[in-house]
Structure formats: C-alpha cells, structure tokens
Structure to design on (526 residues):
C-alpha cells in the first residue's frame, strides 16, 4: 500500500498527546509532501526504569481529531506487541552522541529513540522525516542514524512552537503546578540572554554564569551549554550551526529547551 | 533507480572471493526473482582487531566475471568510506544471540554483521534476502534483525555447497595446508555422525563425545552443539528446527560447519 502512495511522502513520528508543536510538524509536512503520515506510539524503550511511561499523557481520541483536521493521510498507531514482539532483542545505538546531556540523565533513552525510529522508517518508508527542534539532541541523534544507516530520507527540523511567554510547548508542561508554570519560561529567557551575550563576544563560561542568574529559583538546572548542531559535542566558543541547550527541573517535571544558532 | 526495477528483487550480500557457494545463492535468487542484485564489501566492522581483514581473500575481477555469467542485474561494491563515512558511529545489535558461539570467539562480530546488513537492506531495498546456511548463526542473527526492525524482506536460507569429500566451501579454505585440507572434512563427518546418533535416540552429551572421536587429531575443536534454529540457544534434546553446529581450528584456519535439522 505504502509503495503506491503519491510521493514525496512526509512522516511525523509522535508519542501522541498532540499539541500545537506537533501540528506545526504535520503542517510543514502537508506544505511540502503529497502524502503525509504520522505515528502515535508511546515507546517503552525510550523510557528508563522509573521514568514516566505509565503516566505519560495519552489522548488518542483528541489526537485523531487533530490529525484529521490537519489533513493527515495515514496514521500508524501500533501496539507495543506489534513493535516489540516476544523475543525482540535488537537495538540501534548512535554511540557517544547519545550518552551526553539527555543521554547522561536518561541512560538508554537515545538507544530507545534510535531503535524505534529505525523501525518506523523501515516500515513507513518516507521520503522526508519531520522532527521538532524542541528535542535538539534527538534531532542530532536521528540525523546521524539516517546518515549512518543510509536511510533514503531527508530530515527537516521544524522550529519550536512557544506560548506567549516563550515557554516551549511540551506534553510534559501539563504536569507543572501553577507556580512552576509561571517559573518555566525563565528557561527560555536564560537561553535567549545567553545567545545575546555570546553574540556580544562574551566567553561561554561567563555567558552561562550570567544566564543562570536569570533562571527562577524554582528551577533546578541540569545543564546549560553550547554544542555543535551536528555532533552535539560542547563548543568552547560560538561556531555555527550550533544549539544552545538547557534542561531544568521544575518540581518533579523536567523541561528542555534550546535555541538553534546559524549565525 | 532501484524503485523502478522489476520485482521481486532478490539480494545476495557477499564479501567477494566468490565460490560455488555464492553462485548457488545467486542462482537461487535468479530462479525466484525478476531482479537479482549482490554486494561485494569486505566489512571491517565484522572483523575483530587482530583478525584477518587485511589478508581476507579478494578477487574483484574474478568475482565480476562469475556474477556476469550468473546473470546478475546489479552489483553494489562500495568502498569503506562510502559505507562508513567520517564520524560514523551507529551500531545495530541483536543482543545475546550474537554473543554466543561465534560471537563468544569473535566479540563484536555479529554487531558488525547486523550493522552492515541493516545498511545494505536500507540501501538496496530487496524483497528477498538470500543467505548461505554455512553461516548458521549469521542466518539466525539476520532473521532476528529483519523481524525486529520490520524490514519488508523475506529471508531464504540456501543449503551449504560441499566438495566431494563433504567439506563446506568457504573462502577461508584457501588458507589450509595440504595436510589440513585433508583433515578438514572430518568436521562434516563428525556433524553427520552426531545427527545420526541423535536420531537414534542418544543423549546430546553422549553424541557430542562420540562425534569428537571422529575429528582429525589436527582439529582443535571450539564447539560442537545442538541449538535452536530460531534463537540459537543450546538444546538439551532434539527439537526442530535446529542446527547442529561445529567450529574447529585446523592450524591457523578456523572452519565452521553445520547441519540443518527439520525432522
């Protein structure tokens, strides 16, 4: 069936609980491709033991309605036994790039991401893969996966969608208390300040220190750093393309954000 | 280009130095498929440090002549930098099944095999993958890979081709001294005897002991065992489908052989 669909075929992998960030991915695919498909699969492999797999938000009915409205052509929503049948034992790993930052905090996370996306690409056979900039390290990991295994697919990174205060949309924002919700946009503010300071010529260490002072006292910072967009290795000074990346806990909820720097 | 080729498309991955065993793979593909492709790539990832990558036999001109005669439609013979460009860091691993027997003797071997075949399947997009029974554990590893990652490909296992004394054809047979060459068929004889004894109701341990006595004194046995054809786990008694597997060194040359047991 997939072989007969008009091409180019754009594919948007998701874990459901769709928000405007996902909508912008589907809209970008719709604008570029003749066929647009998406997947909804809450991938157990990318949750480490003790993480929020069970309480990860699910809204299948609401997701379907949104995707129909966006003009999706094809939805793939396998159950876990279809993706990981008994005896499943294969893993796909992009190496060191998946062990730093989010990979250091969440061991095996990017192996789970690479494994499921390799399988989704194999099944869906898209021409274009649409990924959200929001998960910056994931975009680097999946670009590497696509290049290394030779998937005949182009990767598009779609800009992060933010609310009016700058908070990056995320399914996990739903976990924030009202007070945490108010504090959360300071992560974006810190990144924005850091970008400005770097462009003004400040050293990275000084810019990080100053950006930290902008964060809400409610934020427990995991990291704030400047990395190569391609290798995700830390940069000591601004070189493009780069990501300015940050991760912080607000109460029990861990939020990520980043800025994409091209000049 | 691949998308336009008549289907079904059968694919035969090789490391070159083609012999009659490879020819039977191509012939099996030719008999079943409208398009037949092969690859020649001596995959560095599947050689452990200190193994015979450099001295692995190469005969590109001779290989081309054989493949043309067999009516091959398409040959893929990438250089190493095309398969593994700078910064390549991705690995595909089927887990425990790749760590026993050959995997125990050759750590990382099956990870290298799974990685290169995942990439070859992604690039070549065949409908049918033809593998030689000779590398029994490899067939189990690649069946698992195909199933786990959802490659839309059927796997065919083509029977081992033997010389008149029963020695399984292998590129590595060329390394044997005349004396070792004479001793080498005792590996096949030991497997054949073991099959007979198992069918006669002897226990596995007793059959292994008796089969060992058939081996040439020149053979240094690595293992002789009965395993599940699907999981490659050792079986304590005959259950089908199974492989009877053996590996032994004759001087510096390590040879493998197996029997496929279906009843």
């Amino acid at each position: 069936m997939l072989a007969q669909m008009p091409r180019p075929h754009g594919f948007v992998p998701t874990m459901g609980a769709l928000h405007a960030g996902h909508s912008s991915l589907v809209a970008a695919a719709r604008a570029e491709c003749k066929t647009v498909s998406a997947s909804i699969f809450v991938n157990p492999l990318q949750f480490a033991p003790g993480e929020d797999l069970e309480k990860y938000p699910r809204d299948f009915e609401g997701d379907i309605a949104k995707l129909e409205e966006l003009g999706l052509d094809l939805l793939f929503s396998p159950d876990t036994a279809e993706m990981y049948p008994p005896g499943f034992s294969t893993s796909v790993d992009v190496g060191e790039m998946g062990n730093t930052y989010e990979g250091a905090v969440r061991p095996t996370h990017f192996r789970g991401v690479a494994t499921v996306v390799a399988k989704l690409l194999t099944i869906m056979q898209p021409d274009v893969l649409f990924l959200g900039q929001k998960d910056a390290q994931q975009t680097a990991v999946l670009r590497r996966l696509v290049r290394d295994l030779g998937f005949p697919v182009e990767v598009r990174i779609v800009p992060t969608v933010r609310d009016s205060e700058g908070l990056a949309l995320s399914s996990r924002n739903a976990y924030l208390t009202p007070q945490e919700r108010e504090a959360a946009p300071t992560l974006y503010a810190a990144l924005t300040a850091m970008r400005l300071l770097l462009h003004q010529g400040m050293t990275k260490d000084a810019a990080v220190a100053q950006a930290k002072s902008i964060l809400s006292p409610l934020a427990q910072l995991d990291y704030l750093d400047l990395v190569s967009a391609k290798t995700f290795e830390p940069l000591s000074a601004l070189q493009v393309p780069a990501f300015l990346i940050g991760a912080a806990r607000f109460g029990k909820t861990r939020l990520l954000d980043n800025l994409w720097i091209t000049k």
